Amino acid sequence: MMATLMQATAPAVDPFDVSRAELYRDDTWHAPFAQLRAEAPVYRCEHSDYGPYWSVSTYKPIVEVESLPEIYSSEVGGITLADFIPESDVRMPMFIARDRPVHTGQRRTVAPAFTPSEMVRMSDDIRRRTAEILDSLPWNTRFDWVDTVSIELTTQMLAILFDFPWEDRRKLTFWSDWAGDIELVKNEELRKQRLGYMYECGAYFQNLWNAKVGQPQTPDLISMMIHSDAMSHMDHFEFIGNLILLIVGGNDTTRNSMTALAYGLDRFPDERAKLEADPSLIPNTTQEIIRWQTPLAHMRRTATRDTELMGQTIREGDKLALWYISANRDESVFGPDADKIVVDRPNARRHLAFGHGIHRCVGARLAELQIGILMEEMAKRRMRVNVVGEPTRVAACFVHGYRQLPVEISRY
C-alpha cells in the first residue's frame, strides 16, 4: 500500500524535461525539442533532476538572452543546469561564468592565443600532426575513431596551448571528461571523486605555473595569464576554474565535432559525395558539422530580476537553459531540412554552437581550423570514413558527444 501511495505522489516525468541524460545517450532528443520549438519555445519545466528551469529552445529568444548579460547572469548560478556549488562545495570561478567587468579582463588575457595571426602561426603544426595521425591509421581495418583520431588530435593541441608535458597529455582528456560530466552532481560519491580530480589537475598546473613565474613570456596560455594584470593575481581556485574551462572548451567541443564529421558524413552519403567532388566546400562543411553536432547542448543563465521573454514572466533567480542544440535545428532559421547535414547550406555559419554575444567561444577560430585541416588532409588522401557500428554516446545534457565510434577507412 505504501509503495502505491509513494508512486501516486511522486511527480510524473515531464516529457518536455529535455535535461534527461537518456535522451542524449539514445539520441532521442529531436522529437521533444521539435515540439517545444513549435508549441512552447520558452517553457517552464517544474520537475527535473536539476530542479525547475526554463527551456529556451528556439534561435531568437536565445540570442535575446545572450544579448542581455546584465539581466541573464552567467555568474549567479554558473553555466550548467547542474548546481555544482551548494554551500559545502568549493567554488572554482571561471571567466565564462563571470559577468562584466571581471569577465572582460580575463577573456582579454587569453584572447591573444586565438587571433588570426596566431592561427596562421599554428596551422603548419596542426597540419603536420594531423597528417601524422592520418598516415598511421590502418586501412580497411576496424578501429575507434574517437580515441585514435578525435581525442589524440585535440589533446595534442591542448598540450601545445598549455605547454603541457607531452608524455602526460592524456591526463588532459581524463580531467576534461570528469570536469564536463554534469550527471555526477546527482551522486555524492562521484561528486567527491570529481572534486579530487579537479584538485589533482590544479596541483599539476600549479607546478607548471610556478616554473614559468619570473620567466620571459612565451606564447602559451599559462604564460599569458602570468603576464596579465587581469589574471596574474587569481587565487588557486579561480586558476583551477579557468583551466578547467579552457580544457573542456578546447577538448570536448573540437573532439566531438571531429567525431561528428566521421559519423555525420557517413549518415548522409549524398552530401559526402558532394564534398568529395568539391573540396572547396570544406570551410562551409566545417560550419555545418559544428551546427549539426552542437558539441555543448546548453548553457545556463540565471535571471537577476523579474523580466519577460517571449510573453513568459521570468522571475528573479529563475534558471534558464539555452538549448543551442535545438536552436541549431530551428526550422525558421535553417529550413525544413535542419536535421540533415547539407555541406553547401548557405547560412551554416549562423549556428549558435559557439554561443552569442560577450560569451561567444573564445577558441572558435581554433576549433574551425582544426576541423577544416582534418577534412583537407583526409581529402588529400582520398580517405573516406565508413561507420561500422553504432556510436556510444555521452549520457548527459551538457557535453553532447561520443565515447566511441567504430569505423573503417577506405579510399574513394
UniProtKB/TrEMBL annotation:
The keyword Nucleotide-binding does not apply. It holds the Pfam family p450. GO terms for molecular function: heme binding; iron ion binding; monooxygenase activity; oxidoreductase activity, acting on paired donors, with incorporation or reduction of molecular oxygen. The keyword Oxidoreductase applies. Coiled coil: none annotated. PROSITE patterns: CYTOCHROME_P450. Keywords: Heme, Iron, Metal-binding, Monooxygenase, Oxidoreductase. Belongs to the cytochrome P450 family. PANTHER family: CYTOCHROME P450 YJIB-RELATED, P450, PUTATIVE (EUROFUNG)-RELATED. This is Cytochrome P450. It comes from Diploscapter pachys. The lineage of its organism: Eukaryota, Metazoa, Ecdysozoa, Nematoda, Chromadorea.
